[in-house]
């Protein structure tokens, strides 16, 4: 399998990156971040989530965020929707596409969505049906594809089974989430090889948290298996509220720097992306989690 020549980056910073921040962030700040990300060339921005606001208070204002976005042609502004209530909110707010999220671990499914894996699939069916009717695409997530904070190691066959169910249900793509970042190139490849027996690489994405510093190596391993969609978060923002200690997603700047070096096209301008990351880190008083951004910002200042 040859490395892809092009990679689509799914920017999850405004959603996955910010959902765990304890201090409320204004809709205006989130909107400005989204505008800067689109100016940097991102063509897919997960801009918020329509979940129970008691569970994730930081995402409570997602209506205001979607309503304030000045949409750029060619950019998909997506929202996470756990159930029909979330879907209706996303539709009313003008989201271009929705994402449903399942887990490969029963314990994580309960903690994250208050239901079993099978029940979560039942909840997704009407969302997919409604989205088809409304002309919205549906992306699927599987969390805990390598390890779970409650159950430990996860069987790759289980991941393949859940991912296949999401594709059969109507998702156009499934993003495989190493929620707690425990994977290494070996375990990620083992997991991907199990999934690839059931789903072609064109329908898969990787969503890798950098908790153990393995994310870039794991992305490289995924590229070697033909995966050409990578989720990442500007400035490495993030963590999952139901996965204690999970650090952010891999930083978008680090991914773009690596892909530029490999001669793989992303359509993203690294300098503008770094400015977007610097903006949000200053706005929420947070350390920048991208090594590339830190190095290049220091070079500019020096
Ligand atoms: C799934 C539920 C909703 C079940 O939550 P529940 O409490 O079991 O829901 P319920 O159906 O029993 O309803 C309880 C109340 O919540 C309301 N409610 C119910 N749904 C909604 C909604 N959509 N929007 C607004 N309100 C809602 C509902 O109307 C009701 O209100 P009340 O009658 O008490 O006034 C909840 O567990 C939930 O919101 N979970 C989401 C948690 C979350 O957002 N986690 C982070 C995202 S996943 C992630 O980060 C991983 C990922 C994707 O990035 C990949 C990776 O890294 O692995």
From TrEMBL:
Keywords: Lyase, Metal-binding. One of its GO terms (biological process) is L-leucine catabolic process. Residues 7-274 form the Pyruvate carboxyltransferase domain. Transmembrane segments: none annotated. GO terms for molecular function: hydroxymethylglutaryl-CoA lyase activity; metal ion binding. It catalyses: (3S)-3-hydroxy-3-methylglutaryl-CoA = acetoacetate + acetyl-CoA. Pathway: Metabolic intermediate metabolism; (S)-3-hydroxy-3-methylglutaryl-CoA degradation; acetoacetate from (S)-3-hydroxy-3-methylglutaryl-CoA: step 1/1. Its EC number is 4.1.3.4. InterPro entries: Aldolase_TIM (IPR013785), HMG_CoA_lyase_AS (IPR000138), HMGL (IPR043594), PYR_CT (IPR000891). Pfam families: HMGL-like (PF00682). It comes from the Bacteria. This is hydroxymethylglutaryl-CoA lyase. The keyword Phosphoprotein does not apply. The keyword Metal-binding applies. It comes from Pseudoteredinibacter isoporae. Belongs to the HMG-CoA lyase family.
